[in-house]
Amino acid sequence: MFSGAHVIIHSRDAEADRAFFRDVLHYPHVDAGHGWLIFKLPPAEIAVHPAEEPQHEFYFMCDDVEAAVAELTAKGVEFTHPVTDARWGRLTRFRLPGGGEVGMYEPRHERATEL
């Protein structure tokens, strides 16, 4: 039925965040017109968690969180939380140039991307 998913990150500085995805993360992209870049993401998963107030989060997954932190830090990325351990993985958060934050984690659980 569905052929993919489209994630939207709202930003105070969309141009800066688009440049980050293009120039720092080197994600392939298409230009939908007038510099409106749409990026190809790695395989993704979706999980549903219980909550009193619905909200949405975005996490990048990686195979080695320490190596990813080191590589991104060398590129000037600001991490807003130290790497911590959770039952489901090792996680951290970093700031996008537009002021928003996204998570990054090394999963300990089986990955649905492998299905």
UniProtKB/TrEMBL annotation:
Transmembrane domains' residue ranges: none
SUPFAM superfamilies: Glyoxalase/Bleomycin resistance protein/Dihydroxybiphenyl dioxygenase
Protein name, per record: VOC domain-containing protein
VOC domain location: 3-107
Domain of life: Bacteria
Organism ancestry: Bacteria, Bacillati, Actinomycetota, Actinomycetes, Pseudonocardiales
